[in-house]
Structures are given as structure tokens and as C-alpha cells.
Amino acid sequence: MKVLVNDREVHLAPGMTVRHALIGAGLLRDVETGKKVFDEWDNETGLDGALSENARIYVREKGPA
Predict the structure, then answer these.
(1) Which distant-in-sequence residues (6+ apart) come within 8 Å of 43 by Cβ?
(2) Is 62 helix (H, G, I), strand (E, B) or coil?
(3) Which of 9, 19, 30, 41 makes an SS bond possible with 35, Cβ 3.0 to 4.6 Å?
């Protein structure tokens, strides 16, 4: 399945998680050093979260609430 991480296409096997997408995009280290993962609606997402075809996730600094 295809997901977008920071608008970069990453291909994963069905059933893989946010963590797998970040590994595929080379961004897991950013999360380990304090950045957060958000979905396309700006909801914070955990590393074990499920993904579906064409899901969009973004890695960035947590902004003000």
C-alpha cells in the first residue's frame, strides 16, 4: 500500500504501522529525538497506529496547543 510521509511516497505491506512508514522514510530518528507524528487532520498519532492506503502523516515539532 502507498502512504505519504511529509508528502513523500512510501510503499508498505498491508497491516504495517506508522513506525514502519517512518522507517521507510528515514524519519524514525526525528521522532526519537522529540518530534511528533500528526495525521492530515493535525491529530497526534502514535507509532503503533494503523495506516490505510493513501494515508498522510507528517513529522514535525509539536506546535502550541
Answers:
(1) none
(2) coil
(3) 30
3-state SS class at 19: helix
Compute and round to an integer the Cα radius of gyration of the chain.
Answer: 11
For residue 17, give the amino acid letter: T
Going from N- to C-terminal start, the domains of the chain cover: 2-60
Closest CA to 15 of 50, 53, 54: 50
> Alpha-carbon torsion 34, 15, 8, 41, what sign?
negative
Q: Can you give the pTM of this predicted structure? A: 0.91
Q: Number of helices and strands (H, E) in the chain?
A: 2, 4
pLDDT at 64 over 70: no
